[in-house]
Structure formats: structure tokens, C-alpha cells
Amino acid sequence: MTAAILSILALLGIGGGIAWIRGKKQKRRADLLAKPLPEEWQEIIGKDFPRYQGLPAELRRSLDGYIQILMAEKRFEPCGGLEEVSLRMKLLICAQAGLLLIRLKQHGFYRKLKSILVYPGAFQDSGRRRFGLHEEEDDFTMLGESWSTGSVILSWESILAGARNADDGMNVVIHEFAHQLDQVDGAADGVPILQDRSAYQQWAKVFLRNYEELVEEVERGKGRRSLIDPYGATNPAEFFAVASETFYEEARQLKKNQPDLYDELKRFYGVDPASWERV
User: Which of 194, 193, 158, 153 is nearest to 176 (CA)?
Assistant: First the structure.
């Protein structure tokens, strides 16, 4: 913090200083939301993320602003031998993560998230995760992870694969950033921050029924193949993250097969991906 800022804080008092900093951040964000995305950045994103070009023009303009805010406010750290997190990597992460925010009312720009750690490929961790390439007793290979303490860990290979394939129901960035939305209140329970009590009641009703149906189907091990990946039956938090992937990547099928779940996610995220151009 510079001497000038310290002097201002001293003059205004702590409360006034905090308000001044918040006001400055809000103004910077408003400026970035209104600022066109550089053409070079658009070309980089469009090359690997066809969904970007398929968005309605109004939503794409909103996404441009969110990309710039996430680029400016989040710290990117190379890991696992990766020399640097390149501009291309940052843009593809922010474009996919920003997709969840473009019409979401309560998000705070992933306010708990401070750092995004990027590995070149799969990385090791203890504990079972859906994005594991294989499972062993004590050591699992992962492609993504979200921590409520302020970090998301991603594999560049999975970032790129998720961006390029917009209709396979698998997107590690959407999955892990949905976890961030869920974890913002301190609990990873499959219930993000909603508008009011009635919204929580409706969410619980719809999500519990669909989650229990998936669990039952997975336990039976037979019947029709669920549109939602079986990993969603692990717990309610994973169900929300996997359902979010399905909502953005297989929207038309989700709307047809599980219209109540689709409508609930549509109400939460504020977008209707089933109406977007196919890519």
C-alpha cells in the first residue's frame, strides 16, 4: 500500500478508507465491463472455445467484461514444471469461468477465489475425484480441484479439452468454478447463495429429487444411462457441479429429459443455453 493511500486512509478513518477502496474497485469493474475485449484476445478465445462465438451478441459482450475482470483480479500460478501461465491459458480459463457469471445475480466475481494454479497435465492428490484418470489406494491422478480456502487447481490439458468440446458434458473449468459458487458461504453442500427463502425451498425440492434419482440409478447399475455423469451421485456438492456442466454443455437434452432441473439451473444462472446457437 502506497504512502498516498495510507495518508488518505488516515484522513478518512478506517471505515471511510474501506469505503473508498471498495468504490475504486467497483469503478474499475464497471469500466472493464464496458470495455471491448481486445481483438487479439477475441481471436485467441475464438480459436479454442467455439462456444464463445456461438453466444448471443449481448451475452458475448457481457462475457468480455467478466473475462477482463477475472484476468485483472485473480492470480495465476504455474505448477508441476509449467514455466508460465500464458495469455492463452489465462483467457481460456477466464472465458469458461466467466460463462457462469454473465447473468448470475449473486457471485462477487468468485470473491473467495484468490489464486488459480495450473499444471501442464494431470496432477496427484489424495482423495477420490471425478476427474481422476485412474484410482489407486493412496494416490489419485486429477485434472481439477476447488478449495474453499481460495484456490482452484486445473490441468491445462483439461482446460483446453473442455473449451474445444462444447457438447460432451465434461468441462473441468465449469465443474470447479461451480464448486466455488457453492463454497462461497463456507459449505460445500450443493446449495449456492440464492435470492430468498422460497428459492431455497424450491431448490431443495428439485435438486434433492433429481439427486436421489441419480443415486438410485447408480446403485442399481442398470436402466437407462443417465444424462448426468454418475459422479454426480457422490454427494450433493458434486451433483450441483456435474449438473452445471450438463446444463451448459448438453442443455437441450437436459431440458428434454429433466425439465425441472433445467428450469432451476436456468433460474439460478439467468441464461437459457438450450436456445443458444449450436457449436
Answer: 153
Question: What predicted TM-score, i.e. pTM, was given to this entire model?
Answer: 0.85
- CA dist 16 and 201 (Å) reads 38
Assess if residue 10 is contained within a domain: no
Which DSSP letter does residue 193 get? -
**CA gap 68, 59 in Å, rounded:** 14
* C-beta of residue 52 within 8 angstroms of C-beta of residue 45: yes
- In whole angstroms, what is the distance from residue 172 CA to residue 175 CA? 5
Local mean pLDDT, 10-residue blocks, the chain (279 residues): 53 55 82 93 96 94 96 96 96 98 89 94 54 40 73 94 87 96 90 93 97 93 74 95 96 96 98 89
Number of domains in the chain: 1
